[in-house]
């Protein structure tokens, strides 16, 4: 099986809840175990931007997301923001990859400074210190100098900064196509198979065009 078997997926309070929910669905369909972390602000964004209303308690949320995505029992594990005994909080048991999508600029700042005030920040700190894959998907416009400096710092520390900036060369026909573009890029970085977006040039090779 290509790519990591377990992935920590965190959602924070930037716009773009659809990206995180779609990635969760894709990870489940690819039979990956997901450690799911979410901020209170992200729950508000989800309720605002989608027709999904998540239960507040981790166990109820875990049951809801498992049914929502068709996950196998135990495939999605939801941890509260103060659950310091959760696997993502320790380098000895954290998954080998973590994605924060969407990543608010506040979370970006906290991760860049090693704040570790909640489980999302601590999990990202673990990924950095253990030299594990950390993908941050900010969604903001425009970026301030502070945002850009934090991104540069995190990039120098080994994180991958993947702005939620969908392309148009695949001729999207819907909002879902634009969401899938970004999610496909995340899956490519994780080396997890996806068929939502052909890699550059694949269409021409498949059709025999020059």
Automatic annotation (TrEMBL):
Dimethylallyl phosphate binds at residues 169, 185. Residues 6-189 form the Flavoprotein domain. The keyword Mitochondrion does not apply. Its EC number is 2.5.1.129. Belongs to the UbiX/PAD1 family. The gene is ubiX. Keywords: Flavoprotein, FMN, Prenyltransferase, Transferase. HAMAP family: ubiX_pad. It catalyses: dimethylallyl phosphate + FMNH2 = prenylated FMNH2 + phosphate. The keyword Flavoprotein applies. It comes from Azotobacter chroococcum. Flavin prenyltransferase that catalyzes the synthesis of the prenylated FMN cofactor (prenyl-FMN) for 4-hydroxy-3-polyprenylbenzoic acid decarboxylase UbiD. The prenyltransferase is metal-independent and links a dimethylallyl moiety from dimethylallyl monophosphate (DMAP) to the flavin N5 and C6 atoms of FMN. PANTHER family: FLAVIN PRENYLTRANSFERASE, FLAVIN PRENYLTRANSFERASE PAD1, MITOCHONDRIAL. FMN binds at residues 13-15, 39, 104-107, 116, 139. This is Flavin prenyltransferase UbiX. GO terms for molecular function: carboxy-lyase activity; flavin prenyltransferase activity.
């Amino acid at each position: 099986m290509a790519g990591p078997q377990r992935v920590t997926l965190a959602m924070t309070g930037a716009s773009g809840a659809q990206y995180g929910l779609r990635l969760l669905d894709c990870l489940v369909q690819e039979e990956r175990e997901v450690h799911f972390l979410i901020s209170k602000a992200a729950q508000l964004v989800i309720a605002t931007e989608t027709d999904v209303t998540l239960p507040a308690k981790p166990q109820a949320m875990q049951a809801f997301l498992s049914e929502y995505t068709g996950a196998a029992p135990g495939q999605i594990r939801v941890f509260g923001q103060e659950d310091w005994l959760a696997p993502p909080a320790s380098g000895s048991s954290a998954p080998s990859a973590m994605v924060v999508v969407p990543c608010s600029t506040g979370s970006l700042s906290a991760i860049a400074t090693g704040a570790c005030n909640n489980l999302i920040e601590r999990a990202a700190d673990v990924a950095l210190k253990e030299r594990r894959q950390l993908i941050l998907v900010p969604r903001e416009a425009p970026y301030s100098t502070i945002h850009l400096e934090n991104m540069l710092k995190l990039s120098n520390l080994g994180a991958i900064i993947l702005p939620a900036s969908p392309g148009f060369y695949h001729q999207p026909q819907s909002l879902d196509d634009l969401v899938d573009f970004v999610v496909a890029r995340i899956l490519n970085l994780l080396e997890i198979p996806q068929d939502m977006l052909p890699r550059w040039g694949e269409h021409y090779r498949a059709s025999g065009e020059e």
